[in-house]
């Protein structure tokens, strides 16, 4: 990805809110001209799993269909649209769709009669679908699409802009890691595990902490950047096979504040976009070593002063450290690692809901560890 200058398209974001809020604002304006349009939503495409995932919605109705994903290959008409770039119309949903899947059942139950699906792209890369729904039959067609074009183009722009911002931040972090391979010899596996652990936790605690799909995806993606400050720590310290001396421990602990500096530099180079996802990235990097009782570092925050994004990454990171091989220790089993986390809950360090979330998904956690293994230090001897 090209390096973005301070005059890049990211300067769009100083007044932008979350995609949910932006869709709600556009929907409100659109209903002045088209009052029969009852919902606008965006479903994100995950190329790794070939799934469409709920992401953002203009109405509270959409919150009933949250944290949901479905294989694109199982949706032939949408699959074809993703390839052709053409829109898809359904003008009698109850007669055309059967309540076979949760998403079709939900559409029918909500009283929607018509739907238009518009594929969205970042460059030539398919990233998901914009959906418009109406409770009127036979509402969408090519003529209607033409009248809606200005609004659709705005929605395409904000969807693509947010996607670009998130992935530009991730790419910048990846580029910095790639420039110092001695620091992160197994970082890919670590990042993938952390991302999946964080998503499991975020999904489980979403009802408790009011997390929508946009926030869950943001936390999952930016979890991969939590340790970027370790680029400032000598590789000899990171890879040391025995206990660290005080000076080395201090160097290691300094990685949080160094990480904040690195992230701030990346953000500044991108034109300082003031988008909510940027705040989540900063929270994760700055606070993922804080504990609820104030014994964490570097800021000694307590309780609600620690954002939920950082609480989630803290639990995911400790769990990963316990269940991974390191030069100085063998990996723990999932049950033993969870027991250790529960001890940390009891003494007031970790969020109990985040730890409980992992306990509820032990089989999945084991599969993630198997899919993205850390090399055993014994194998290197």
Verbal overview:
The chain is α+β, with helices and mostly antiparallel strands. The chain folds into two domains: 9-163, GAF domain (Beta-Lactamase, 2-Layer Sandwich), CATH 3.30.450.40; 180-380, Orthogonal Bundle (Hypothetical protein af1432), CATH 1.10.3210. Helix content is 50%, strand content 11%. It has 15 helices and six strands. A six-stranded antiparallel β-sheet has the order 3-2-1-6-5-4, sandwiched between helices. Strand 1 and strand 2 (51-57) form a beta hairpin. Helix 6 runs antiparallel to helix 7. The longest helix is centred in the middle third of the chain and has 37 residues, at 142-178.
Number of domains: 2
So, CATH architecture of the largest domain? Orthogonal Bundle
CATH level-four homologous superfamily name of the largest domain: Hypothetical protein af1432
CA radius of gyration: 23 Å
The chain-level mean pLDDT equals 87
From the helix content, strand content and strand pairing, which structural class follows?
A: alpha+beta
Biggest sheet: strand arrangement: 3-2-1-6-5-4
Portion in helices: 40-55%
The low-pLDDT segments are 1-15
CATH fold descriptor of the largest domain: Hypothetical protein af1432
Percent strand equals 5-15%
Label the overall shape.
elongated
- Output the number of helix runs: 15
| Terminal-residue CA separation | 39 Å
Order of helices and strands: HEEEHEHHEEHHHHHHHHHHH
Q: What top-tier CATH class of the largest domain fits best?
A: Mainly Alpha
Give the tally of β-strands. Answer: 6
Main beta-sheet strand count, sense and barrel state: 6 strands, antiparallel
């Amino acid at each position: 990805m090209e390096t973005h200058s301070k005059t890049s398209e990211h300067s769009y974001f100083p007044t932008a809110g979350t995609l949910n809020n932006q869709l709600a604002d556009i929907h409100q304006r659109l209903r002045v001209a088209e009052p029969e349009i009852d919902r606008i939503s965006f479903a994100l495409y995950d190329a790794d799993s070939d799934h469409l995932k709920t992401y953002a919605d203009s109405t509270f109705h959409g919150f009933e269909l949250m944290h949901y994903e479905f294989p694109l290959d199982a949706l032939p008409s949408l699959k074809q649209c993703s390839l052709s770039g053409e829109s898809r119309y359904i003008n009698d949903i109850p007669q055309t769709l059967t309540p076979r899947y949760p998403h079709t059942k939900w559409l029918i139950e909500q009283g929607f009669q018509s739907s238009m699906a518009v594929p969205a792209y970042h460059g030539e890369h398919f990233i998901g679908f914009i959906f418009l729904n109406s409770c009127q039959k036979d509402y969408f067609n090519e003529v209607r699409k033409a009248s809606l074009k200005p609004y659709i183009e705005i929605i395409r722009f904000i969807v693509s802009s947010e996607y670009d911002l998130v992935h530009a931040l991730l790419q910048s972090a990846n580029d910095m890691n790639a420039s110092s391979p001695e620091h992160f010899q197994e970082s890919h596996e670590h990042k993938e595990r952390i991302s999946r652990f964080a998503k499991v936790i975020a999904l489980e605690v979403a009802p408790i902490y009011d997390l929508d799909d946009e926030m869950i995806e943001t936390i999952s993606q930016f979890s991969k950047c939590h340790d970027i400050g370790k680029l400032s720590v000598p590789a000899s310290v990171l890879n040391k096979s025995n206990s660290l001396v005080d000076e080395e421990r201090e160097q290691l602990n300094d990685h949080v504040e160094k990480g904040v500096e690195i992230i701030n530099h990346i953000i500044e180079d991108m034109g300082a976009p003031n988008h909510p996802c940027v705040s989540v990235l900063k929270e994760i990097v700055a606070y993922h070593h804080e504990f609820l009782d104030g014994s964490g570092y570097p800021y000694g925050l307590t309780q609600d002063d620690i954002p939920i994004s950082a609480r989630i990454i803290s639990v995911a990171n400790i769990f990963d450290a316990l269940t991974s091989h390191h030069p100085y220790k063998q990996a723990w089993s999932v049950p033993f690692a969870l027991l250790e986390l529960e001890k940390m809950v009891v003494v007031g360090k970790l969020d109990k809901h985040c730890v409980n979330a992992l306990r509820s998904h032990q089989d999945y956690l084991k599969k993630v560890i198997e899919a993205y293994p850390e090399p055993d230090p014994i194998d290197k001897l």
